[in-house]
Amino acid sequence: MRQVEKSPLKKESLKAEVYDMLPLRTPHNKILEVKKLPTLPEIAYRLLDLLSRGPEISQLEEVIRYDQSLTAKILSVANSAYFGAQKEIHSLERAIVLLGIKEVSEIAFSICVLSVFKPLRSVRNFDPRNFWLHSIATGITARIIAQALDAKDEDKFFTMGLLHDIGRVLLLHLFPEKFEEILLHQEKSGRLLLAEEMELGFAHTWIGRWLLKRWGLPESLVLAVRFHHNPFYKEQFLFEPAVIKLADMTVHNLNLVELPGGQKGDPGPLLYKLGLTEDLYQAILEHLSVVRESLSEAWSYVI
After folding, report:
1. Domains along the sequence of the chain with CATH
2. 7-18, pLDDT tens digit by residue?
């Protein structure tokens, strides 16, 4: 599959983006005034660094093994009925061998992100467990799409998918009443949740971008979160956000995890722009049918 050229944002577009954000700085938007934010554990940065370099088993074990909670959860996943180990797994090294380096890295990073926002209350028809399952499913789908496209650094697409809606969980964490108001408006209107967020000045794409920049995460992750609803920004085609949009849309279209106001629709224009054939996309959909059955079971020890 051909590699699609990735167009970076030009300086002019970045300036335009700043002006686009100005309406969000309303009296109701208190996000910018928050002084104390949830912080990402140091181990998460080490995991991201390892993933960018393709770690060996010993390197990954060295990063994880001093975190007892993280180690215990990974051992629980390895010993779950889903993976069906013939003998009980007692060591982190054996768990990595059974699950795979990439899979353990993704599980460990997901645990780090989820831990930042615990405990997280449920409001109206928004279930935090389903939110994280959707995020994980989007990450898995994004990685599969990236593999089909022979994309460079395909493993980072899981991280992008995991984080794509992080702005929503931050809003729920800091302002649950405002988040519930947005859900109420969406329930009545039936519109995209993003449309209701924009109207009230709390777009999760902008809030997520802001949080990831505050965390000091790589710019590619920041842009994927900011533009995963609009990868055709200012007449430019943004490859990585487009992959995340397609993954998000696919998860919603298949109803892998039910969330209110998600972006559903025809994937055709994205498939064409990405250079992904209908046959290959159908193969991806068939592969995801396995995820539908196993997603909750396989990740139940993580969430």
Report:
1. 1-38+124-303 (1.10.3210.10), 39-116 (no CATH)
2. 445 444 444 444
